[in-house]
Every structure is written in structure tokens, then in C-alpha cells.
Amino acid sequence: MGIEDDAVEVRAQGWRTLASLHALIEIELERALQDAAELSVVEFTVLDALSRQHGWHMRMQQLAGAAALSSSATTRLVNRLEDRGLLTRILCADDRRGIYTELTDAGQTLLGSARPVYDETLAAALAAAEQKPELAPLVDALHRLPDPQPAAV
């Protein structure tokens, strides 16, 4: 193997390790959120993304990006959450083709009860991952990330 081949393998191994950490965390979060709030991780992610917006709403395209979903998958997810009364859709006054998604009071309440479960489960999953030698460097890197700055209002 040449140097270039070694670099490719290092990146591939890094990606496999990152995917392993992600899977470990997501499995724990999925279980905890389902048990505590009947939410999937992606549903929690959508509610959380909406809660962080000034005015509590986002365009569907922004929401798709925040949840890392396709437009069609986002539409199906929003339909399910809307049927549960957790969010609502509003036509954009400036652009009739634009649709905003907004958190309802019920969505805010459910998110408020689910957030501590999410935070505790994430902390526990990271602590468990930190005990695995192959995952410890990634967990350490996550701990060293700077705190996100609050969005300007």
C-alpha cells in the first residue's frame, strides 16, 4: 500500500468509528425517547429545531436540512407530528408557495418533558462510549467542541 492508500484507509477507519459512535448513541436515544415521550430521535430533532427558532417556526426546506431528511420524508414527518397536534403549518404571507412549520403549545410541552431525557441519555451514552478505547478519542473531541453561540434575536 502506498501513502495515498494509507490515507484513504485512515479516513475510512475514521468514518467507521464515527458511524459506530453515532449508532451507539442513536440506539440509546431512540429507546429512551420512545419510552418517555413516544418520540423518535428524528421527531425530537424536528421539535427541538423548531423550539430554537425566533417565533417558533421554520420553512419546510429549512426543517428538512435541520433534520437531515429529504423533502418528501420531511413532509411525511410533519404530517405525523401535525396529526398528533405537536406542530402546525402556516402559509408564508410573503410567498404563497412557502410553508412554515410551527411548534404548538402541546409540542412545546412534550419537548420540555423529553429534553431532560434526551440530555441524560446522551450524557450516559457518551460516558459508555468513552470507556471503549476505539471511541474514546471521538468522545473527547466532542467534549472539546466550543459551546454554540445563541442565535441573534
Can you walk through the features of this model?
- With 153 residues, this protein is mostly helical.
- 66% of the residues lie in helices and 8% in strands.
- The protein is built from 6 helices and 3 strands; from the N terminus they run H-H-E-H-H-E-E-H-H.
- Helix 2 packs across helix 5 (105-130).
- The longest helix is centred in the first third of the chain and has 35 residues, at 3-37.
- The chain is globular, with a radius of gyration of 18 Å.
- Tally the helices: what do you get? 6
Main sheet makeup: 3 strands, antiparallel
According to DSSP, the number of beta strands is 3
Q: Record the strand order, biggest sheet.
A: 1-3-2
First-to-last CA distance? 53 Å
Strand content: 5-15%
Mean pLDDT: 89
Radius of gyration: 18 Å
List the secondary-structure elements in sequence, H or E. HHEHHEEHH
CA-based shape: globular
**Residue share in helix:** 55-70%
Poorly predicted spans: none
Structural class: mainly alpha
Short description:
With 153 residues, this protein is mainly alpha-helical. It is 66% helix and 8% strand.
